[in-house]
From TrEMBL:
Substrate binds at D294. It comes from Aquabacterium soli. It catalyses: adenine + H2O + H(+) = hypoxanthine + NH4(+). Residues 27-347 form the Adenosine deaminase domain. InterPro entries: A_deaminase_dom, ADE, Ado/ade_deaminase, Metal_Hydrolase. This is Adenine deaminase. One of its GO terms (cellular component) is cytosol.
Length: 354
């Protein structure tokens, strides 16, 4: 691991046997979570009943059985169908609230939630309904759970530039409810350049910019997300290893990668967890974070991602510290909040080292 990126742990010597407990207890941030991807089958069925929406699966078990994906698109087809039960402001609130309760259990201090307005506005659900429901849950989380939550609006990259501009226009009356924009959905054949002008406008508006790149798409999409879109973080980014000059650049710039290990296995980006390149990315000095992506579909929330990754890749307490610290450093919160949460992280490690 390069000295430049490994944050020194406050106290060394935490035994491997205590790692699972440490991964659970350590405060952390989650920076890559699609709120529509937190819709559990049980909630899909409950909302379908509440709203009189017909589902193509007879039971929760049958729906869960359909979660066997071969690639990103095979997942997206089911994911967009699942979101069809969301119609009212309360539906969006209830979905986000269910996730935020899990976030509290996982000791997440801060989360930056992606939402996909076009998935809803294309079905006739007004933008206002989506954002008001999600915002209400985020505000409640702060006061009732002590979890800080912000929203990042994603443009669906399989749709047109025109549709993205219409979405941006519809969002402007609610500008104070979200902190940035992202780019998600089917990556192959939808390069970052397609949204160059939309992102330029968002940049002018002072929004934070992130983009999915290098999940299924080539390393060149990561370069374009940086150079053309001016993305501040890269979502996934695991295919950066195919371009050594890019790896060097990402390490030098300290650009964060929001890696999602369980997602990568479920969507066949890697065959199995012990073949995941996260350990290698850390060794290359990259600012890696661990995230859950679409936890209801991929077999676990954030701490499950940490547990399975650490077990398979044989990572240690130093890696746990670096990953948790990176999550705060790469977040879009104030320097004061970062310092406060990192101090809490340090205290947790000191406690475990005793
Ligand atoms: N939307 C939800 N999850 C996604 C992922 N892993 N990649 C691209 N778009 C997504
Ligand atoms: Zn994602």
């Amino acid at each position: 691991m390069s000295a430049a990126t490994v944050s020194p742990m406050p106290v060394a010597g935490i035994p491997a046997a205590r790692l699972p407990e440490l991964l659970q207890a350590m405060p952390k941030a989650e920076l890559h979570m699609h709120i529509e991807g937190s819709l559990e089958p049980e909630l899909i069925f409950a909302l379908a009943q509440r709203n009189g929406v017909a589902l193509s699966y007879p039971s929760v078990e049958d729906l869960r059985k359909a979660y066997a994906f071969t690639d990103l698109q095979s997942f997206l087809d089911i994911y967009y169908a699942g979101a069809s039960v969301l119609l009212k402001e309360d539906d969006f609130h209830d979905m986000a609230w269910a996730y935020l309760l899990k976030a509290q259990e996982d000791n997440i201090r801060h989360t930056e939630l992606f939402f996909d307005p076009q998935t809803h506005t294309d079905r006739g659900v007004p933008f206002e309904v989506v954002i008001k429901g999600l915002s209400r849950a985020c505000a409640r989380a702060k006061t009732e759970l002590g979890v800080s939550a912000s929203l990042i609006m994603c443009f669906l990259r399989h749709l047109s530039e025109e549709s993205a501009f219409e979405t941006l226009q519809a969002s402007l009356p609610y500008r104070e409810h979200f902190i940035g924009v992202g780019l998600d959905s089917g990556e192959r054949g939808n390069p970052p350049e397609k949204f160059a002008r939309v992102f330029a406008k968002c940049r002018e508006l002072g929004l934070h910019l992130v983009a999915h790149a290098g999940e299924e798409g080539p390393a060149a999409y990561i370069v374009d997300a940086l150079d053309v879109l001016h993305a501040e973080r890269i979502d996934h980014g695991v295919r950066c290893v195919e371009d050594p000059a890019l790896v060097e650049r990402l390490a030098k710039q300290g650009t964060a990668l929001t890696v999602c290990p369980l997602s990568n296995i479920k969507l066949c980006v890697f065959d199995k967890m012990d073949a995941h390149n996260l350990g290698h990315l850390l060794e290359q000095g990259l600012k890696v974070t661990i995230n859950s992506d679409d936890p209801a579909y991929f077999g676990g929330y954030l701490n499950q991602n940490f547990l399975e990754t650490f077990e398979a890749l044989d990572l240690d307490a130093q890696a746990a510290y670096t990953l948790a610290r990176n999550s705060f450093e790469a977040s879009f919160v104030s320097e004061a909040d970062k310092a406060r949460w990192i101090a809490e992280l340090d205290d947790t490690f000191r406690r475990f080292a005793q």
